[in-house]
Amino acid sequence: MEDLRAHRALLLVTLTGALFFRSSRAHVITEKDSILLADFVNTTGDAVFDGTLKKALAVDLQQSPFLNVISDERARQTLAMMGNRQRSASLLASGAKSPSARR
User: What CA–CA distance (Å, rounded) separates 96 from 101?
Assistant: First the structure.
């Protein structure tokens, strides 16, 4: 009876360890990976930062050979195909989750 408990405990520990190591591996980035940038909310009160932070980050990320930055227009088209008819100019974090999950 104790042998059976020991075997079950060993099996449980082995499976838990295997699941932990499998889930904690880093995702390897390839040239096919895409990223969607949501709009930044300017909380500085300085109008010079309106829109410039997102643009600067997009320009920097586009220099990477491993990432494709999804354009705002493509994100809006994806939202439209998903049934979201709101075609606002900004794509905040709550709205950015939907088209990025569909990719």
Answer: 9
For the chain, how many structural domains are there in total?
1
Q: What is the dihedral of CA 81, 83, 85, 86, to 10 degrees?
A: -100
Q: For 64-78, write each residue's pLDDT tens digit.
A: 888 888 888 888 888
Q: What is the largest CA-CA distance in the chain?
A: 73
Which residue has 């980050």 as its token pair? 57
- Is 18 a domain residue? no
- Residue 3 inside a domain? The answer is no
Residues 22-56: pLDDT tens digits?
A: 766 666 777 778 888 887 778 888 888 887 888 88
